[in-house]
Design goal:
Blueprint (H helix, E strand, L loop, with lengths): L8 H13 L5 E3 H8 L6 H13 L3 E4 L2 E4 L11 E9 L6 E9 L4 E5 L1 H8 L4
Antiparallel strand pairs: 1-3, 2-3, 4-5, 5-6
Length: about 130
């Protein structure tokens, strides 16, 4: 998120659900799913709410430690990701960045990410 104010719990939940709705992977282990969600929040209660909300909305199915995605929507690295020059820290790996990649969702922008982490978060690299 690129706003100066901390996002509300509801905003974090919506962003997390939207992130799960746009994963390219058909299925992920719970650990891989949590790796993606941790770019939004590390709060266990919010993480649980993101998973529960995504499940209730039919975006994911959870079974035996595996999360199956069902939305079929993907992030286009060309159309849905903007790059900005500046002094950033990657939300996934905490590396210093001079170019930040931000995913533009309906609910908010999510980032910054480095060039390899943006691919990991969206499911383009394993």
């Amino acid at each position: 998120m690129t706003t100066d104010a901390d996002p509300t719990v509801e905003q974090r939940i919506e962003l997390g659900v939207e992130l799960l709705a746009h994963l390219e992977d058909d299925s992920l282990s719970l650990a891989e799913t949590l790796d993606r969600i941790e770019t939004v929040t590390t709060d266990p209660a919010i993480t649980r709410e993101i998973l529960d909300t995504a499940d209730m909305r039919g975006i994911i199915d959870r079974e035996d430690g595996v999360v199956h995605t069902r939305s079929g929507e993907f992030v286009s690295l060309e159309a849905d990701v903007v790059k900005r020059e500046g002094d950033f820290t990657c939300r996934r790996c905490n590396a210093s960045l001079s170019t930040g990649h931000f995913i533009v969702f309906d609910s908010a922008e999510h980032g910054p990410f480095g060039s390899s982490c943006i691919r990991k978060v969206t499911g383009r690299d394993d």
